[in-house]
Amino acid sequence: xxxxxxxxxxxxxxxxxxxxxxxxxxxxxxxxxxxxxxxxxxxxxxxxxxxxxxxxxxxxxxxxxxxxxxxxxxxxxxxxxxxxxxxxxxxxxx
Length: 94
Prior knowledge:
Elements: E1 2-3, H1 4-10, H2 15-22, H3 26-33, E2 38-39, H4 40-54, E3 63-64, E4 68-69, H5 73-86
Parallel strand pairs: 1-3, 2-4
């Protein structure tokens, strides 16, 4: 199994170029290569763009050292908003 950086070097892409192909910031690619956690949607975008450059199908699981974290805050926000809409929770300024 290869790292993101090894595969990026194999196709001679800069972090900026890979970020552009994946529609993420260069800093996101760099963070991923450093093993820092990133959102799953961004990891998938990077891996799919890299797979296209390599001419193969890659999955997040195929990349060594790629760390994913799950974003929980939006789920909480939507839960609270739904509770307010259904009348189970009163809005603060109501």
